[in-house]
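Schema walk-through. Below, the input block comes first and the output block second. Nothing else is stored per chain. Lengths vary across the set, and this one has 418 residues.
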Amino acid sequence: MMQENKNAQVGIVVTILVISLFVAVIVIIQVYYVPQWMKDKEADHMDVVANQFANLKFSIDLQVMSKADIPITNSITLGSKELPYFLSSRAFGSLQILSSSESNFGIYITPSSGRMKEIYTYTASNGEIDYVTGILSLDLRIDTFNDGDLFNISINGNKNLEMRVVNDANGFRIVLKTINNTQIIFNQTIASALPQETFIINLLNPDYKFYTDVLPYIITPYTLSFNGSSNGNFIIKCRRFGTPSSSPIQYSLGTIKYQSENAYFVDQTYVYEGGAVILSQTFGEAVISSPSFSARNMTTAHIFNISIIDIKEIAGKTSATGYGSYSIRTNYSDSTRFSMIAKNLTIQINTEYASAWGRYFRNFLNASYITNFTVVVNESGNYVLITLNGPQGGDAYDIQFSLNKIEVYAQVGPGWVG
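--- output ---
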């Protein structure tokens, strides 16, 4: 009887020890391993979101390059589920399309004596047009024929076209001469037996060789000068850099923003703004996917091309919260391009991620071998200021700058509003 009691007591003790061991193991797993597993799970989810934002940027880049009205859908996973059987918390997140009035993001370009590219028309018998980058149309209209009248076109002081009115036995005729440097490459009568009435000559006619053998080889910008008899006028339409101005170009721009609500891993924010993807967290921020910017040092000039994306929202389809996957649909809309030359230039980026943009611009300009620049980051003021100076300095127009603002519509969730 005593032996049976002892065996029973041993069994109870063993059972208690086994239960205690099991509880201890569960406690260790719950206290130590579950937080670590959940931290890894949330970190993996952050990697997924980073890849999803990279795919979103790639899709928008494709739409911008093709300029096609074809929507593309990507998905963003907002959060992650808890572990089964153990006590753990879900991770949540939010996705927002922020309008230009909500995003606190914008770009401001201020040139020093900037000359904006424009289409310019001019009609006169004598004159000069400077900073020409291309001739769209060039006509000579002769209203009255007079023997010996001359009409000349010169580029950078070198005569390239000469039109002479000649009166002979058959009436008036026009002799056109094309000169390339000092070589005469065309010298013929182009019209004869002309009556005394208005006559128009298309000076870009390929037969005259000015358009095909002279213009393509002129370094732009150039100065186009013309002179002739008061009996006629040149009618010119060209592209040129206009009169100097320091007026800024400024845009407020929309963005796409994801914010995590993690229970274990550090919270992260992913933002698509201006064509860049930015990662922000407690201990810093960085541009992890670059915008479509380019810069070249051409020794005598610095050339900058910036394409910046403006996200336009669809009312009622601008946000989602939770932990599931939500679609985000984008569609190319329109673009506006500005080109200018300037003596120097400042670019101000207004952003909540000034440190990331400042670091990006320093690395970008250094990698492009641009040396005459400064980058000032003002984190409290939420902006970064970039000053660009040309290689020649002084009054030289040695900065060529192009800004392409592209509108892309975006919506969160199923369905599409056109």
